[in-house]
Each structure stands twice: as structure tokens, then as C-alpha cells.
Amino acid sequence: MGKFKHLADSGTVVAKSIPRTFTTLYTKEKVMSGLSIDTAILDQLRDLDDEGGDGIIKELIESFVDQMPGFLTRLGVASDQKDLSEIQLVAHSIKGSSGMIGAVKAARISERLEQKARQRCLEGIEDLVRELSMEFSHLAEELLIVCAPEEVTP
Questions:
Q1: The whole model's pTM is what?
Q2: Per-domain residue ranges of the chain
Q3: Does position 70 have pLDDT exceeding 90, yes or no?
């Protein structure tokens, strides 16, 4: 529990569980070979797991998937209101959460969004919010596949 506690102390909120009621045509191999997820980061997280499994990875991903809709709603409202401070704050949070689980494309989009807000530049903000929302839709399914239990073949 020591290594897990270290992750919790770093500000990572870990959800207990989420329902896995989705179907997909993706396979874990396809997901792991895609550009949206950095598997080296997942491997580092796996190394932190005291039990040597995917427990930490699954909990972090489940938390990320649970939190992202709220973050995206906040970004949409802030974008509509042209609230650059809120956009910067939320984009920074998404960047950190995305980076923690290896969601590199989402982290890059969030970083660009955070930089624009920091520079007080409204141009392109709405496009980046839409791009991040589309990436999350794609990413959520992929990440939940990573969390899915391995199928056992006889």
C-alpha cells in the first residue's frame, strides 16, 4: 500500500469502481499500439503496483474516465463565458491527469489550451475544447479496454 499511498498523496483521486457496460471492436493490442496512449507510462505505473498487476493502472484510469466529463463541462462553460482563468485551471488539471495515465494526445491538447489561456488568447480556444472532447470520446473507450479483465481461453 505504500507506493499506492504515494500516488494518492500526490493529489490523484482514485475511484473505487465504474461500470464496464460497453462493447467495442477494439482489441487491447490495437489500443496499446495506437498513438493516444504511451505504454511506457503504463509500464511505470505497473511497476509501482505492490501486487505486480494492473491495480493502480485500473484505478487511475477509472478515476480519469469518471472525472473527465465534469472537466469537459467546466471547459465548455468557461469557453462560452470567455473565462480564461478557469480554462487555464481546468486545462492544467486535465494535462496532469492525462499525463499520469499516459494519455499523451489529450495531455498535448490540454497543454496547448492551457498556454492559450495563460497568454490571454481566446482565438482557437473553442476549437481546442472540441478537439479535447473528441479525443476523450475516443480515449475513454480505449482506456476502459486497458482496464477490462483479460479473456481466458480454454
A1: 0.71
A2: 36-147
A3: yes
